[in-house]
């Protein structure tokens, strides 16, 4: 039989290679399948009567007896050629049928666990459409009489019933009216069975009453149960999903076996919905609890421990306090007084001797002039000197750009970060670093800026005066045997 089986999530939980229904209620009726009124809560009971639900074991590969030409699909070829479980990859996008749609994207990874058979019921509804109903359905089903003669038909009043041809055997009251005769009173929902019609002059005809079950109202769905069909399915899960799929082997999913991946590498991601608890497992008894100790004994022990720690902390505190006093004394002895004199612990004779040796130091004025003359101020730097300044900062790549714009020292100190980024093309961090170095260089120039003045004396000596605040006055004697003396700052 050619039919399309929808791919839907298996509404069950896996437990060690088996299925169990978690919401099944073991309540079934032993009433025969007759036309009398009876409501079943499970379609399987309605078909099989007193058969209780059994747990179904699933196999890890297909038998040769399951071969069928209509099952020539990629899923069937995989499960019939390889032993489960194994990893499979979806080669083409797939969308299932039905209200509970499952969509598989290309390159999705599936883990095929095992193979099983899910029994379904092939039915035909009142429009002639074939419908597959699951065995473990949650709907409420009502057994109906199979005689089409009892289809619903509305009669307006008793006269219309008497004149009907053929005369109906059973009627349901859908609208009732009051009557002065108690035996003629009726209620909505009562079912009447017509036995015969009596004519008694002016008296209204009487009808006999016998309560029986007839066809359901027209707003209900009616199915004709045809046969059982066992669908061979593969139970599978896919990565980072809580759904467990029951994929029929006839489903047209383009999959292939993945050889680069192993089950162990993807086990954590592919089995999030697996329930590892078996229904036959029993709770293990809790270990025996040792007898508890007396509360007073525990409190006394804790108090002794606290007292011991407290005594140790007090001893450590006193020891640290003494060390602190000793360190303060040493620090006060080594410190200088506020009036600039040395403390008593310092040898004054040594200090005087050191001052005398300092006065004998000879400082050459010509050496200072030569050193300071070599230092170029940033404000008076030329374009080439600005390039050397950039090279010292490892900004060699921007030297051609600065030379092209003729940036000298005076122009460099006027630049800001925005101009460096927009016009020169510097990065923000490089522009900021250059600005910091320029400010630092200007500050150093101001501190080391000296104006030297050479005064020639009649005795052949030359005096060099500095303009730095609190700077020394240096006298240089070029004659033989001359010495320079330093004044106090």
Automatic annotation (TrEMBL):
Stretches for region Disordered: 335-361, 452-489
SUPFAM superfamilies in UniProt: SAM/Pointed domain
Pfam families in the record: SAM_2
Residue ranges of domain SAM in the record: 381-445
Membrane-spanning residues: none
Biased composition (Basic and acidic residues): 347-360, 452-468
Biased segments, Polar residues type: 335-346
Protein name as it appears in the record: Sterile alpha and TIR motif-containing protein 1
């Amino acid at each position: 039989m050619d039919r399309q089986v929808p791919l839907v999530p298996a509404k069950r939980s896996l437990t060690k290679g088996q299925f169990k229904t978690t919401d099944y209620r073991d309540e079934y009726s032993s009433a025969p399948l007759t036309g009398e009124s009876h409501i079943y809560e499970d379609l399987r009971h309605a078909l099989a009567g007193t058969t209780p639900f059994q747990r179904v074991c699933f196999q890890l590969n297909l038998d040769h007896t399951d071969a069928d030409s209509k099952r020539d699909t990629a899923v069937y070829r995989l499960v019939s050629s390889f032993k489960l479980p194994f990893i499979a990859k979806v080669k083409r996008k797939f969308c299932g049928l039905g209200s509970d749609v499952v969509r598989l994207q290309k390159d999705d990874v599936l883990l095929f666990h095992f193979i099983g058979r899910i029994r379904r019921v092939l039915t035909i509804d009142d429009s002639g459409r074939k419908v597959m109903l699951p065995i473990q359905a949650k709907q409420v089903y009502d057994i109906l009489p199979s005689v089409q003669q009892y289809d619903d038909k509305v009669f307006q009043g008793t006269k219309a019933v008497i004149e009907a041809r053929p005369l109906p055997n059973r009627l349901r009251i859908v609208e009732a009216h009051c009557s002065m005769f108690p035996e003629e009173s009726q209620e909505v929902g009562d079912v009447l069975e017509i036995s015969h019609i009596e004519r008694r002059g002016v008296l209204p005809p009487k009808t006999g009453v016998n309560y029986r079950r007839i066809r359901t109202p027209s707003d209900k769905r009616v199915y004709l149960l045809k046969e059982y069909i066992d669908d061979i399915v593969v139970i599978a899960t896919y990565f980072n999903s809580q759904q467990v799929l029951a994929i029929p082997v006839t489903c047209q999913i383009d999959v292939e076996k993945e050889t680069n991946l192993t089950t162990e590498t993807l086990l954590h991601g592919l089995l999030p919905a697996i329930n590892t608890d078996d229904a036959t497992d029993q709770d293990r008894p809790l270990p025996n609890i040792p007898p508890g100790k007396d509360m007073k004994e525990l409190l006394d022990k804790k108090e002794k421990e606290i007292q011991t720690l407290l005594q140790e902390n007090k001893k450590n505190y006193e020891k640290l306090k003494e060390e602190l006093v000793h360190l303060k004394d040493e620090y006060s002895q080594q410190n200088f007084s506020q009036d600039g004199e040395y403390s008593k612990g310092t040898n004054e004779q040594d200090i005087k001797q050191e001052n005398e040796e300092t006065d004998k130091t000879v400082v050459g004025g010509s050496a200072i002039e030569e050193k300071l003359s070599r230092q170029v101020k940033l404000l008076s730097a030329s374009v080439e000197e600005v390039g050397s300044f950039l090279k010292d900062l490892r900004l060699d790549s921007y030297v051609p750009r600065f030379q092209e714009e003729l940036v000298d020292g005076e122009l460099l100190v006027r630049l800001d970060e925005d101009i460096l980024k927009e016009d020169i093309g510097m990065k923000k961090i490089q522009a900021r670093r250059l600005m910091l170095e320029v400010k630092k260089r200007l500050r150093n120039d101001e501190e080391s800026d000296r104006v030297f003045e050479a005064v020639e004396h009649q005795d052949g000596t030359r005096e060099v005066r500095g303009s730095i605040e609190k700077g020394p006055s240096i006298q240089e004697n070029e004659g033989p045997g001359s010495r320079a003396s330093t004044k106090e700052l």
